[in-house]
Amino acid sequence: MVLALANGARRGELLGLRWQDVDMDKAEIRIERSVEQTAKSIRVKSPKSRAGRRSVSLPAFAVAELRLHWKRLQERRLALGLGKSAPSSGH
């Protein structure tokens, strides 16, 4: 929800985000894919144009929430015995 409020990305673009698309040090996300619901399934697709692939800046409050969420995910992984995820840029 925080990301939806923090930038102008579309719903499908937000659903297509992966942690590797998030750079908290630079306070930005990279939009490289989108999720689309079809009549039969859900599919991941590339943007329709080059302009669709872009970096979107994040405000400080969104980065703070993402850091907190990342920390909670790691704690949950450890509690389940899965170990920590490999950190991506900016985690």
The residue ranges in which pLDDT falls below 50 over 5 or more consecutive positions are none
Assign the structural class, choosing from mainly alpha, mainly beta, alpha/beta, alpha+beta, or little secondary structure: alpha+beta
Strand order of the largest sheet: 1-2-5
Describe the main β-sheet briefly: 3 strands, antiparallel
Note the total helix count: 3
Q: Hey, roughly how much beta strand do the residues contain?
A: 15-25%
What is the H-and-E element order? HHEEEEEH
Task: Note the overall shape.
Answer: globular
Separation of the first and last Cα atoms:
19 Å
Descriptive overview:
With 91 residues, the protein is an alpha+beta fold. The protein has one domain (2-79). Helices cover 33% and strands 20% of the residues. The protein is built from three helices and five strands. The strands form two sheets. The chain has a three-stranded antiparallel β-sheet, with no helix packed on it. Strand 1 and strand 2 (28-31) form a beta hairpin. The longest helix is centred in the C-terminal third of the chain and has 20 residues, at 60-79. The radius of gyration is 14 Å and the shape is globular. It starts with a helix and ends in a 12-residue tail after the last helix.
